[in-house]
């Protein structure tokens, strides 16, 4: 039961990674298809994470009435169909409707996927969250590769998207039969539910450090995804072809880091892994900022992938441990800061680059990532008091912070 649940959830992460990559890597083609001006494009792009935040908050309310598995079961098809709508529309209005549907559904999808991941990790009694996010990275690599094929062969957007949707949509619906909800857990889970108050026990003072870590991690991630190519070409003097490589390298190293990250958590603990990831990411930003040429800059972006990749999965996992009886609500609220970081990161680096320098701008996400070290103890765990090896927050930590959200 748990193995099938884990495999089906991993496929959902894969499908989401592929769908998201197919959207963001074809933004220039989408702009050309609909004739969206450079002035209007940022509004369209900002609307997606804003609506995703709305979708995530709405999911917190939905899961009080229906299980997260049901939210995920229907959110994923909407994401895939909205992606197809983006590729097949004819007017700006149709593009806006498709992107709005994509954003709202992505928020629900991200929140419910991580809710199920947190509950499965608790059921397994060991770290497995990084493996789900590794599969997401793999899906992103596949999606970006398919997008390259579509661009190389000058395929219409709907021609690129349709085969992907036809494969992923039925597979996701079939796989959704084996999702495992938190309610499928043991008596200890039920006892936790009473203790957590079904979401009423969520304390903002405890959740805030994790929210900040999530936000800072996505500021770093959006810096790489939005500025790595421009930085390599305009600042470090690389060729146009070489400038496309850093993000691909970043995605591959993210996949590798997440694939082995769970082993590190089991061996050294979440705190050590998060601290190591933050330090490696900070070194990566420093290398990028002082790089004398494109190949050293490439090394910096490689280090960024290895460092940043562990922060987001471990933040979701820490929220689940910190609020074992209210993990769904904690994950939904924490997920909002994913989109906050995404919204802040790119404009922040761009503004600093224009006002100061792009080398100097890279030092800002470096400092923010280093702030994660201050909050590293929020990831601390102790052996499960119920038995079975589940990781739990320290009693002393849970006792601190009493103002509910």
UniProtKB/TrEMBL annotation:
<dbReference type="InterPro" id="IPR020846">
    <property type="entry name" value="MFS_dom"/>
</dbReference>
<feature type="transmembrane region" description="Helical">
    <location>
        <begin position="155"/>
        <end position="180"/>
    </location>
</feature>
<keyword id="KW-1133">Transmembrane helix</keyword>
<protein>
    <submittedName>
        <fullName>Integral membrane transport protein</fullName>
    </submittedName>
</protein>
<dbReference type="InterPro" id="IPR051788">
    <property type="entry name" value="MFS_Transporter"/>
</dbReference>
<feature type="transmembrane region" description="Helical">
    <location>
        <begin position="331"/>
        <end position="350"/>
    </location>
</feature>
<feature type="transmembrane region" description="Helical">
    <location>
        <begin position="95"/>
        <end position="116"/>
    </location>
</feature>
<feature type="transmembrane region" description="Helical">
    <location>
        <begin position="272"/>
        <end position="291"/>
    </location>
</feature>
<dbReference type="GO" id="GO:0022857">
    <property type="term" value="F:transmembrane transporter activity"/>
</dbReference>
<keyword id="KW-0472">Membrane</keyword>
<feature type="transmembrane region" description="Helical">
    <location>
        <begin position="356"/>
        <end position="376"/>
    </location>
</feature>
<feature type="transmembrane region" description="Helical">
    <location>
        <begin position="39"/>
        <end position="59"/>
    </location>
</feature>
<feature type="transmembrane region" description="Helical">
    <location>
        <begin position="128"/>
        <end position="149"/>
    </location>
</feature>
<dbReference type="InterPro" id="IPR011701">
    <property type="entry name" value="MFS"/>
</dbReference>
<feature type="transmembrane region" description="Helical">
    <location>
        <begin position="297"/>
        <end position="319"/>
    </location>
</feature>
<dbReference type="InterPro" id="IPR036259">
    <property type="entry name" value="MFS_trans_sf"/>
</dbReference>
<keyword id="KW-0812">Transmembrane</keyword>
<feature type="region of interest" description="Disordered">
    <location>
        <begin position="385"/>
        <end position="405"/>
    </location>
</feature>
<dbReference type="GO" id="GO:0005886">
    <property type="term" value="C:plasma membrane"/>
</dbReference>
<feature type="transmembrane region" description="Helical">
    <location>
        <begin position="71"/>
        <end position="89"/>
    </location>
</feature>
<feature type="compositionally biased region" description="Basic and acidic residues">
    <location>
        <begin position="387"/>
        <end position="397"/>
    </location>
</feature>
<dbReference type="Pfam" id="PF07690">
    <property type="entry name" value="MFS_1"/>
</dbReference>
